[in-house]
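User: I'm putting together notes for a lab meeting next week and I want to include a structural view of one of the chains we've been expressing. I don't have a solved structure, so I'd like a prediction I can at least talk through. The sequence is below, exactly as it appears in our construct file.
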Amino acid sequence: MRCLGWWPLSWVRALGWVLGCALYALAVPRRRVVKTNLGLCFPNMSKRQRDAIAFETFVRFAQAWLDRGWLWHGSPVLLERRLKLTGARHELDGLDPVVIFAPHFVGLDAGWSALTQQIPRQFTTLYTHQSNKVINDWILKGRQRFGRTQLFDRLDGFKTIASALRAGAPLYLLPDMNFHVKESVFVPFYGVPEATVPSLSRFAKLGRAKVVPVVTRMTPQGYEIEIMPAWKDFPSDDLTADTALMNLRLQAYIDTMPSQYYWVHKRFKDQPLGMPPIY
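Assistant: Thanks for the context. Below is the predicted structure for the 279-residue chain, given as structure tokens.
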């Protein structure tokens, strides 16, 4: 991965294509998860269209993983050239409390690197420790490479993280996953009930913060990181309604680049009582 920091991007992406093809062929259980997710979310597409998205999902996943070689080991000048921040950059000016809604697109680490390198603020995020110590240390160093960053453990609690928010450190939050059903609410995702953590609304309330979506798109030149205008109608007094609105707006982002979303995750793992398991 250190060596990839010196490769031309076209070589890295070509290697990622080969790795993605291998994963698609060999990771059969995960391929079934991806195809199940796509079948539920895009029932009006033909099977051929969904299979094409599934294949490209594995390719994008592999390319984004190898891109961490240059994200975490390439020169800062190289990163500035490959990571393009666009959109409403003014939303991150000053010291106003901000929760950044960063959906699980494959470029999630590229978005974090761009923000921490190119915007002079302290940023925070949540981190799940890896069982492999070598990999864990490598990821931690990579995500703390630029700026003044703080990675909270999920056990640190809402109040600790909200305090950092109110002190002016934007929170880079990825809440669009099925974690534990006891911590989630069931809201539609592409019309299917899905257990989603209501943390975006909760952190925005506790931190008295605005919500700014940041969507990262993989491009042939690297990544485009779009900072969108803050949501004016968020949060409300209803956690469930807020979470449903988050999923609805997320769908609009996904529809622009479906193969770059994290379909390898079991989004519908937990189902309402009495419903049959999906996977």
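A couple of points you could mention at the meeting. DSSP finds nine helices and nine strands in the chain. The mean pLDDT is 94.

User: Perfect, that's what I needed.
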